[in-house]
Amino acid sequence: MITDYNRLSGLQKVAILFSVLGESLAMTLIKGLTQTDLRKVRSTIRELGSISFKVKKRVIEEFYFSFISDKFNESGDEPRKPFAFMEHLTDEQVVALLVSEQPRVIAIAMAQLPQERRMLVLVRLDAETKGRVLIEIGDLNDIPLEGVVDVAHDLEDKSHFLPRTINFSRGGGQDIAAILGDMDPEEERKYLEAISLENPELAKEVKKYHLTFENIFEFFTDGLLRDLMNSVELDTIAMAMKGMDEDTVNHVLENLPQKKQAMYEPVEGVVAKREIDKARKSIVQVAREMEKDGTFKLADLIGGGEMIE
After folding, report:
1. Distance from CA of residue 211 to its chain's centroid?
2. pLDDT of residue 115
3. Which of 6, 123, 180, 198 has the most CB atoms at less than 10 Å from its CB?
4. Rounded distance between C-alpha atoms, residue 277 and residue 279, angstroms
5. Domains within the chain, CATH numbers bracketed
6. E strand or H helix at 217
């Protein structure tokens, strides 16, 4: 019995289509067959033997989607995007569709979602699955186009059973950095460490795009640091400096205007760690906005490229 769709030749696929639909109907879908071609198809049908239902279904789907695509192109419409159906699902439906899938399937689907929807899915995963998904997102380039389309078709079929209430991304370090940036600092550090242990090369790629509070002081020029700190409230700076070494605090103060330097008061006493993390996260967010505006590129700073003062 034939059970492997991927091993079929084009002629065998045509023969299966003929055997399922019958010769008359199949010839209305496949135009331009000569008598010689038709004899080859009939001969191949006799040689095929039994064929699994799954293989027959895949062959029919391939010809169907090809037929529909041709119709779209004839009418001047754009080709159908494999994951377009997800745009019409609610947030709850997207989460319900993906959380029970394998990490690689979740990663492929998440790479197609806008950032806010990615986080909705990610927060619903257990710690182990979440780590695997982040690794997979950075390694999607190995998946052939047919594999991505197959995943899209499978998920679309499943989406029809959800309760009611193209272009595709290849993922990579930049996508992972964006996801990590939306996590709380403790979780952010934990998953970055996990990626570093399991895939050092991927971690290196992530760090080109992943801006942290610590690497602000490691890579920012004085000009960039001055612009950043002048865009942040003084109370936020003081809270963020809590626990930092004296040299770093002095470096920040030196890059503040004299008026702010005179008004600066360090935060004394015991402070909840979440308050310090919140202040540091807000400074990082301002720095990210600066990067979006083209003030600098983190990859250039880390790699020693041209810096914008």
Report:
1. 18
2. 80
3. 180
4. 5
5. 5-74 (no CATH), 84-189 (1.10.220), 211-303 (1.10.220.30)
6. helix 213-219
Structure tokens at 216: 């602000």
Q: Which two tokens stand for residue 197?
A: 């242990």
CA angle 57, 58, 64 (to 5 degrees): 90
pLDDT at 238: 93
Q: Of 190, 207, 176, which is closest to residue 127 (Cα–Cα)?
A: 190
CB atoms within 10 A of CB 160: 7
Distance between CA atoms of residues 76 and 230, nearest Å? 52
Q: Specify whether the CB–CB gap between 121 and 95 falls below 8 A.
A: yes
Task: Encode pLDDT of 196-229 as tens digits.
Answer: 888 888 888 888 888 888 888 888 889 999 999 9
Q: Please give the share of the chain, as a percent, with pLDDT higher than 90.
A: 17
How many angstroms separate the most distant Cα atoms in the chain?
A: 93
What does residue 2 show for φ and ψ, rounded to 5 degrees? Answer: -85, 120
Q: Which residues of 80-89 are buried (b: 16+ CB within 10 A; e: fewer)?
A: eebbebbeeb
Which candidate, 163, 153, 161, 151, places its Cα nearest to that of 106? 151
What would the pLDDT profile of 83-105 be if each residue is shown by its tens digit? 888 888 888 889 889 988 999 89
Report the alpha-carbon distance of residue 243 to residue 221 in Å, rounded. Answer: 22
Tell me the C-alpha to C-alpha distance, in Å, between residue 178 and each of 79, 171, 172: 29, 11, 10
Query: What CA–CA distance (Å, rounded) separates 154 from 15?
Result: 25
Query: Based on C-alpha coordinates, what's the Rg of the chain?
Result: 28
| Angle ∠(259,261,267) on CA atoms, nearest 5 | 130
Task: For Cα atoms 254, 257, 260, give the angle at the middle one, nearest 5 degrees.
Answer: 95
- Please tell me whether residue 2 adopts helix, strand or coil conformation: strand
Q: Reply yes or no on whether the pLDDT at 47 is more than 80.
A: yes
* pLDDT tops 50 at residue 77: no
